[in-house]
């Protein structure tokens, strides 16, 4: 696999950005080297194996990743992705069927693990002693867990306010050093970008190994569906690394002959952090904004991977839109009603499906996969506040019932059964 600039195509070495134009780097796969039937049966056979590399939904696809010696692979059995039927969610969006692929069911409870296993394994192979990231919480938790496994010191830069306490607590548990900076995520990422990659391993999604790990979510999803391609994949967009990773994974699966078409990709942003959605509507270059949204994992005003993500959305015939914080909050409550649950940012996908059904962009009978990016327990404070509010799907705690009122309550609960 060759590392090259994703913008000008120049071959790249050990830098983080292209020396010629400053663009992000990306690995290029040569699909001519593989046989699709042999690959499929190899990947399918590995699902029954107990080899730690085979049980990982990233390393199971190792032929399609930059080579890393087995002794350097740091894995926590990431990317083993459950697919759930979205019964209540589909109904809410006025669609006949949809399913959730839950990337929150990862070792540290977000999709960031799939990228981090690749980035930290590479850092270990390269002899790195320190790994650094800027984070709204989930990248920090994932990096610290993999650093703990690898024996690498972790340093994370997080915004001092407005990120979930559970994510910070997780990061502290894994033993990383947390530095709260006076500013938002975009500011923290600027600081990280100015560091010397020769001294520290920078593992934000500008790191091409992160994208290689995350693209495997596309392979794992296709494999879980017996390689049947959905019509649409709907996912939240923040820094847009995940959009570029899913797009790359589907494109490579197509080029390899594992599938014969790609799903359309719909990216959903929060209205207060929607520079990519604006760009998609109006054209031109991305104009950064000061981000405001209670979906903190996508509170990003200057997404680093917008060029890559735009190319992926366009090639797939997809779309980009934004939804309000209220729409996200209600959609998150609905995902809970399916017995699944997710953190706020993840619910942008269901809110997005609902909006795209209203516009008619997505057909009622289309086969839609909604990407849930993080676990419900990532942001307990948000859920509590929702249920204490007057929001449409708020579920209030009842005050201490007497014997008589308890009988009434049982009748009420019985009647409300769906
Ligand atoms: C990181 C993250 C996102 C955004 O992904 P990008 O790759 O930055 O677009 C969405 N949801 C959750 C839960 C995340 O942790
Ligand atoms: Zn370049």
Structural account:
The protein has 418 residues and is α/β, with parallel strands linked by helices. 39% of the residues lie in helices and 14% in strands. It contains 15 helices and twelve strands. It has helices spanning 36-46, 52-55, 87-92, 112-125, 138-150, 165-173, 185-193, 208-224, 241-256, 275-282, 306-316, 325-337, 348-359, 380-388, 403-415; strands spanning 2-5, 25-28, 83-85, 98-102, 130-134, 153-159, 177-181, 201-202, 232-236, 264-270, 319-323, 368-372. It has a six-stranded mixed β-sheet with strand order 3-4-12-9-10-11, sandwiched between helices. Helix 5 links the parallel strand 5 (130-134) and strand 6 (153-159). The radius of gyration is 21 Å and the shape is globular. The protein starts with a strand and ends with a helix. The mean pLDDT is 96. The protein binds pyridoxal-5'-phosphate and zinc ion. Residues 110, 112, 138, 205, 236-243, 297-298, 343, 345-346, 373-374 line the site of pyridoxal-5'-phosphate (PLP).
Describe the secondary structure blueprint for this structure.
Blueprint: E1 2-5, E2 25-28, H1 36-46, H2 52-55, E3 83-85, H3 87-92, E4 98-102, H4 112-125, E5 130-134, H5 138-150, E6 153-159, H6 165-173, E7 177-181, H7 185-193, E8 201-202, H8 208-224, E9 232-236, H9 241-256, E10 264-270, H10 275-282, H11 306-316, E11 319-323, H12 325-337, H13 348-359, E12 368-372, H14 380-388, H15 403-415
Parallel strand pairs: 4-12, 5-6, 5-8, 6-7, 9-10, 9-12, 10-11
Antiparallel strand pairs: 1-2, 3-4
Helix pairs in contact: 4-5, 4-8, 5-6, 8-9, 9-11, 12-13
């Amino acid at each position: 696999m060759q590392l090259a600039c994703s913008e000008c195509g120049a071959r790249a070495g050990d830098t983080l950005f292209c020396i010629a134009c400053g663009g992000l780097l990306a690995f290029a796969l040569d699909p001519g080297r593989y046989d699709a039937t042999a690959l499929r049966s190899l990947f399918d056979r590995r699902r029954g194996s107990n080899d730690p590399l085979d049980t990982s939904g990233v390393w199971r696809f190792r032929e399609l990743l930059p080579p890393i010696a087995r002794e350097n692979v740091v894995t926590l059995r990431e990317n083993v992705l459950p697919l759930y039927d979205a019964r209540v969610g589909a109904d809410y969006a006025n669609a006949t069927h949809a399913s959730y692929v839950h990337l929150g069911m990862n070792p540290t409870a977000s999709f960031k693990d799939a990228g981090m296993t690749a980035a930290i394994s590479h850092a270990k192979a390269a002899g790195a002693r320190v790994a650094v990231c800027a984070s709204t919480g989930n990248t920090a938790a994932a990096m610290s867990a993999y650093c703990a496994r690898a024996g690498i010191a972790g340093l994370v830069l997080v915004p001092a306010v407005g990120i979930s306490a559970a994510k910070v607590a997780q990061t502290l548990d894994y033993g990383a050093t947390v530095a709260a900076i006076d500013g938002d995520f975009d500011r923290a990422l600027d600081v990280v970008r100015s560091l010397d990659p020769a001294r520290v391993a920078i593992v934000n999604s500008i790191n091409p190994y992160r994208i290689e790990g995350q693209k495997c979510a596309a392979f794992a999803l296709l494999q879980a569906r017996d390689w049947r391609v959905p019509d649409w994949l709907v996912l939240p967009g923040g820094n847009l690394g995940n959009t570029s990773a899913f797009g790359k994974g589907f494109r490579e699966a197509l080029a390899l002959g594992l599938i014969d078409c790609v799903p359309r990709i719909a990216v959903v942003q929060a209205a207060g952090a929607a520079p990519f959605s604006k760009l998609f509507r109006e054209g031109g270059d991305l104009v950064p904004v000061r981000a405001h949204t209670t979906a903190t994992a996508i509170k990003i005003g200057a997404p680093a991977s917008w060029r890559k993500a735009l190319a992926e959305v366009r090639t797939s015939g997809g779309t980009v839109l934004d939804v309000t914080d209220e729409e996200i909050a209600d959609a998150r409550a609905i995902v809970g009603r399916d017995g699944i649950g997710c953190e706020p940012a993840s619910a942008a996908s269901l809110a997005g499906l609902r909006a795209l059904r209203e516009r008619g962009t997505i057909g009622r009978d289309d086969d839609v996969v909604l990407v849930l990016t993080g676990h419900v327990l990532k942001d307990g404070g948000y859920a509590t506040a929702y249920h204490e509010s007057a929001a449409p799907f708020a579920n209030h705690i009842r005050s201490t019932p007497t014997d008589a009122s308890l009988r009434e309550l049982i009748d009420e609960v019985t009647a409300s059964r769906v």
